[in-house]
């Protein structure tokens, strides 16, 4: 999902949920939560997955819970 135009949490969630995939995004306790995703990686030359606290996270039962990125 291209997040280059997303500048807010709501824009990130809208971009992911509106991308026409089975992946759904939400936020809980300052963390991004993805359901329906197996892994998250940044595009070549970008650090988006790292910035969102999602890089290197393993899906458990189809859910990826990112690290805390804001409070």
Compact description:
With 71 residues, this protein is α+β, with helices and mostly antiparallel strands.
Topology, number of strands: 3
- The poorly predicted ranges are none
SSE order, one letter for each helix or strand: HEEHE
Structural class: alpha+beta
Major sheet strand order = 1-2-3
Average pLDDT number: 94
β-sheet strand percentage: 15-25%
Radius of gyration, whole Å: 11 Å
Shape: globular
Number of alpha- plus pi-helical segments? 2
Helix share bin: 10-25%
What composes the largest sheet? 3 strands, antiparallel
Distance between the termini: 24 Å
Please tell me about this protein's structure.
The protein has 71 residues and is of the alpha+beta class. It has 2 helices and 3 strands, in the order αββαβ. It has a 3-stranded antiparallel beta sheet with strand order 1-2-3, covered by helices on one side. It starts with 8 loop residues before the first helix and ends in a 6-residue tail after the last strand. The model has no long low-confidence stretch (mean pLDDT 94).
């Amino acid at each position: 999902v291209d997040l280059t135009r997303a500048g807010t949490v709501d824009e990130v969630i809208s971009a992911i949920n509106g991308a026409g995939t089975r992946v759904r995004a939400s936020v809980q306790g300052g963390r991004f939560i993805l359901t329906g995703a197996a892994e998250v990686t940044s595009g070549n030359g970008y650090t988006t997955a790292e910035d969102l606290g999602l890089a290197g996270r393993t899906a458990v039962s189809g859910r990826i819970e990112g690290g805390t990125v804001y409070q």
